[in-house]
Amino acid sequence: DGYDIETFYHTEADYSGLPSSDIQSLCNDSEGTLWVGTAKGLCRYDPYKDRFVTCLQEDSLTLGGFNIVDILEDQDKLLWLAAYRSGVVVYNPRDQSLKRFVHDPASPNSLSSNNIFSIFQDSDKNIWITSYDGGVNLYIPEDDSFLHFRHDPENPKSLLGDNIHAMAEDTNRNHWFACNYAGLSSINLKR
After folding, report:
1. Do 14 and 21 contact (CB within 8 A), yes or no?
2. Distance of CA 18 to the CA centre of its chain
3. Contacts with 120 (C-beta within 8 Å, 6 or more apart), sequence order
4. Contacts of 50 (CB under 8 A, 6+ apart)
5. How many CA atoms lie within 13 A of 131 on its CB side?
6. What is the side-by-side order of every strand in the sheet holding 175-179?
7. pLDDT (0 to 100) of residue 48
8. Can you point out the beta strands (E) in the chain?
9. How far is residue 188's CA from residue 133's CA, in Å, rounded to a whole number?
10. Do 36 and 52 form a contact (C-beta atoms < 8 A)?
11. Furthest-apart CA pair in the chain: how many Å?
């Protein structure tokens, strides 16, 4: 076919810098850095050395591993990491600082679940977080809290389900939620 495909994977003998070969997500940031989310942490590609540099990996702070299933760069160049079973980590690549959001049953405005699927930033710069069993979370930056959108069987105007795999925003600013095995739900915050 005429194409040369270069491959990278984790092995003990020939370490490429990848903490795992189980690659879950990719993000090319505004400065051209390729970030890779794996089942064991976050790394970035160093094109000068043609290898990956691990930035974050499993540690004692994680709840159930550090499986990074989605990466979003926000307007402040912070990386929002959806860590399945471990909540959300906001990583600042400039100073390597971290902010962690997890579900706290004692705090009703905490993240609704630690089982995170995706992170989305809408046209108004709002950060949305979808989960496996906690519906959708809208980040409130003023107090580092979350507004929850959940399924309520008694309310036909609620989400169709709490297992939300993905979301998107259309040109009319409707926010669409993919409710696994239930259908689609949408909301417009401007109405």
Report:
1. no
2. 19
3. 72, 127, 128, 129, 130, 167, 168, 169
4. none
5. 24
6. 164-169, 175-179, 183-187
7. 87
8. 23-28, 34-38, 41-46, 51-57, 67-73, 79-84, 87-92, 97-101, 116-121, 127-131, 136-140, 145-149, 164-169, 175-179, 183-187
9. 22
10. yes
11. 59
Instruction: Tell me which residue of 60, 57, 104 sits closest to 81, measured CA to CA.
Output: 57
Lowest mean pLDDT among 6-15, 66-75, 124-133: 6-15
Amino acid at 138: L
Distance CA 39, CA 19 (A): 8
Give the whole-angstrom CA distance, residue 164 versus residue 167.
8
The Cα–Cα gap between 117 and 129 comes to 8
Summarised one tens digit per residue, pLDDT across range 69-113 is 999 999 999 999 999 889 999 999 999 999 999 999 999 999 999
Task: Return mean pLDDT, the chain.
Answer: 91
% of the chain beyond a pLDDT of 70: 94
CA dist., res. 172 & res. 117, Å (int):
24
pTM: 0.92
Query: Taking the chain, what is the end-to-end CA distance rounded to the nearest angstrom?
Result: 53
